[in-house]
Amino acid sequence: QGQEKLSCNPKKENGTHVVLCELGNPMKAGARITVDMELSVSGLEDMGDAITFQLQLRSKNSPSPTNASVTVTVPVEAQAEMELRGNSLPDTTVLPTSWQGVEGSRRLEDHGIKVEHVYELHNKGPSTVSGVTLRLAVPHQLGGRILLYLLELGTEGGMNCTRHPALTPHQV
Length: 172
Hints:
Keywords: Glycoprotein, Integrin, Membrane. GO terms for molecular function: integrin binding. The chain is mainly beta and 172 residues long. Helix content is 0%, strand content 31%. The strands form 4 sheets. Strands 1-2 form a two-stranded antiparallel sheet. It has a two-stranded antiparallel ribbon with strand order 3-4. Strands 5-6 form a two-stranded antiparallel sheet.
Protein backbone atom coordinates (compact mmCIF):
# COMPACT_ATOMS: atom_id res chain seq x y z
CA GLN A 1 0.00 0.00 0.00
CA GLY A 2 2.62 2.52 1.04
CA GLN A 3 5.98 3.05 -0.59
CA GLU A 4 9.13 2.35 1.35
CA LYS A 5 12.81 2.49 0.42
CA LEU A 6 14.59 -0.83 0.59
CA SER A 7 17.78 -1.36 2.49
CA CYS A 8 20.18 -3.02 0.02
CA ASN A 9 23.77 -4.10 0.54
CA PRO A 10 26.19 -5.09 -2.24
CA LYS A 11 28.64 -7.91 -1.57
CA LYS A 12 30.62 -10.60 -3.37
CA GLU A 13 29.65 -14.27 -3.21
CA ASN A 14 31.75 -16.89 -5.03
CA GLY A 15 33.29 -14.25 -7.33
CA THR A 16 29.87 -12.85 -8.27
CA HIS A 17 28.55 -9.42 -7.39
CA VAL A 18 25.40 -9.81 -5.28
CA VAL A 19 22.99 -7.18 -3.98
CA LEU A 20 20.90 -8.29 -0.99
CA CYS A 21 17.73 -6.33 -0.22
CA GLU A 22 15.66 -6.80 2.95
CA LEU A 23 11.97 -6.72 1.94
CA GLY A 24 10.38 -6.88 5.36
CA ASN A 25 10.41 -8.75 8.61
CA PRO A 26 8.09 -10.22 9.65
CA MET A 27 6.01 -10.72 6.49
CA LYS A 28 2.54 -12.22 6.73
CA ALA A 29 1.78 -15.47 4.91
CA GLY A 30 0.35 -14.86 1.43
CA ALA A 31 1.53 -11.24 1.35
CA ARG A 32 2.02 -9.74 -2.13
CA ILE A 33 4.49 -6.97 -2.72
CA THR A 34 5.79 -5.14 -5.76
CA VAL A 35 9.40 -4.03 -5.88
CA ASP A 36 10.81 -1.52 -8.36
CA MET A 37 14.60 -1.53 -8.44
CA GLU A 38 16.94 0.92 -10.10
CA LEU A 39 20.49 -0.31 -10.52
CA SER A 40 23.44 1.80 -11.54
CA VAL A 41 26.11 -0.32 -13.20
CA SER A 42 29.41 1.07 -14.44
CA GLY A 43 32.04 -0.35 -16.77
CA LEU A 44 29.64 -1.68 -19.41
CA GLU A 45 31.66 -0.47 -22.42
CA ASP A 46 32.86 -3.98 -23.32
CA MET A 47 29.84 -5.97 -22.09
CA GLY A 48 28.19 -6.36 -25.49
CA ASP A 49 24.61 -5.39 -26.17
CA ALA A 50 22.96 -6.79 -23.01
CA ILE A 51 23.55 -7.51 -19.33
CA THR A 52 21.88 -10.36 -17.44
CA PHE A 53 20.72 -10.38 -13.82
CA GLN A 54 19.68 -13.39 -11.72
CA LEU A 55 16.87 -12.53 -9.29
CA GLN A 56 15.90 -14.81 -6.43
CA LEU A 57 13.50 -14.44 -3.51
CA ARG A 58 14.63 -16.24 -0.35
CA SER A 59 13.20 -16.48 3.13
CA LYS A 60 15.41 -16.61 6.21
CA ASN A 61 12.73 -18.44 8.18
CA SER A 62 12.09 -21.36 5.84
CA PRO A 63 15.00 -21.96 3.48
CA SER A 64 13.95 -24.08 0.53
CA PRO A 65 16.10 -25.69 -2.17
CA THR A 66 13.30 -24.87 -4.63
CA ASN A 67 13.74 -21.11 -4.36
CA ALA A 68 13.59 -20.53 -8.10
CA SER A 69 15.62 -17.77 -9.68
CA VAL A 70 14.51 -15.62 -12.59
CA THR A 71 16.85 -14.40 -15.31
CA VAL A 72 16.31 -10.83 -16.49
CA THR A 73 18.20 -9.57 -19.55
CA VAL A 74 18.43 -5.82 -20.01
CA PRO A 75 19.65 -4.33 -23.30
CA VAL A 76 22.69 -2.06 -23.02
CA GLU A 77 23.03 0.86 -25.36
CA ALA A 78 25.95 3.22 -25.03
CA GLN A 79 25.30 6.74 -26.20
CA ALA A 80 27.97 9.27 -27.01
CA GLU A 81 27.86 12.36 -29.12
CA MET A 82 30.99 12.90 -31.17
CA GLU A 83 32.08 16.26 -32.53
CA LEU A 84 34.72 16.84 -35.20
CA ARG A 85 36.48 20.20 -35.24
CA GLY A 86 38.82 21.24 -38.02
CA ASN A 87 41.28 24.05 -38.62
CA SER A 88 43.57 25.08 -41.47
CA LEU A 89 46.73 27.12 -41.00
CA PRO A 90 46.66 29.54 -42.76
CA ASP A 91 42.87 29.58 -42.91
CA THR A 92 42.90 30.94 -46.48
CA THR A 93 45.39 30.14 -49.23
CA VAL A 94 45.34 31.51 -52.78
CA LEU A 95 47.33 29.46 -55.26
CA PRO A 96 48.73 31.22 -58.34
CA THR A 97 47.27 29.86 -61.59
CA SER A 98 50.61 29.79 -63.42
CA TRP A 99 52.77 28.39 -60.60
CA GLN A 100 54.99 25.43 -61.50
CA GLY A 101 56.79 23.17 -59.06
CA VAL A 102 60.50 22.48 -59.44
CA GLU A 103 60.90 18.91 -60.73
CA GLY A 104 63.24 16.76 -58.65
CA SER A 105 63.63 19.30 -55.84
CA ARG A 106 63.54 18.11 -52.23
CA ARG A 107 62.90 21.61 -50.84
CA LEU A 108 59.36 22.10 -49.55
CA GLU A 109 59.04 25.67 -50.85
CA ASP A 110 59.67 24.41 -54.42
CA HIS A 111 56.51 22.32 -54.21
CA GLY A 112 53.97 24.90 -53.04
CA ILE A 113 52.59 26.76 -50.07
CA LYS A 114 52.52 24.93 -46.75
CA VAL A 115 49.01 24.38 -45.40
CA GLU A 116 48.44 22.50 -42.15
CA HIS A 117 45.08 20.87 -41.41
CA VAL A 118 44.32 19.97 -37.79
CA TYR A 119 41.28 17.89 -36.84
CA GLU A 120 40.09 17.25 -33.30
CA LEU A 121 37.57 14.53 -32.48
CA HIS A 122 35.74 15.22 -29.21
CA ASN A 123 33.49 12.92 -27.23
CA LYS A 124 30.71 15.01 -25.70
CA GLY A 125 29.40 11.97 -23.79
CA PRO A 126 27.65 10.78 -21.82
CA SER A 127 29.34 7.40 -22.46
CA THR A 128 32.97 6.66 -23.16
CA VAL A 129 33.87 5.40 -26.62
CA SER A 130 36.38 2.97 -28.04
CA GLY A 131 37.04 1.59 -31.48
CA VAL A 132 36.20 4.85 -33.26
CA THR A 133 37.32 5.12 -36.88
CA LEU A 134 37.72 8.52 -38.52
CA ARG A 135 38.25 8.57 -42.29
CA LEU A 136 39.30 11.81 -43.94
CA ALA A 137 39.15 12.10 -47.72
CA VAL A 138 41.85 14.52 -48.88
CA PRO A 139 41.75 15.73 -52.51
CA HIS A 140 45.43 15.45 -53.38
CA GLN A 141 45.03 15.58 -57.20
CA LEU A 142 42.93 17.69 -59.56
CA GLY A 143 42.86 17.03 -63.30
CA GLY A 144 45.86 14.69 -63.07
CA ARG A 145 47.99 17.37 -61.37
CA ILE A 146 49.02 17.54 -57.72
CA LEU A 147 46.67 19.79 -55.76
CA LEU A 148 47.88 18.99 -52.25
CA TYR A 149 51.17 17.22 -51.64
CA LEU A 150 50.66 15.22 -48.44
CA LEU A 151 53.79 15.38 -46.29
CA GLU A 152 52.85 14.09 -42.89
CA LEU A 153 50.03 12.44 -41.00
CA GLY A 154 50.10 12.18 -37.22
CA THR A 155 47.94 11.67 -34.15
CA GLU A 156 47.98 12.54 -30.47
CA GLY A 157 46.34 10.91 -27.49
CA GLY A 158 46.99 7.21 -27.96
CA MET A 159 45.37 6.85 -31.38
CA ASN A 160 46.61 4.86 -34.36
CA CYS A 161 46.90 6.28 -37.84
CA THR A 162 46.98 4.37 -41.12
CA ARG A 163 49.43 5.66 -43.69
CA HIS A 164 47.77 7.34 -46.66
CA PRO A 165 48.90 5.87 -50.03
CA ALA A 166 49.54 9.35 -51.49
CA LEU A 167 51.76 10.41 -48.57
CA THR A 168 54.97 12.06 -49.91
CA PRO A 169 55.15 10.08 -53.18
CA HIS A 170 58.18 12.09 -54.43
CA GLN A 171 60.01 11.67 -51.09
CA VAL A 172 60.19 15.43 -50.46
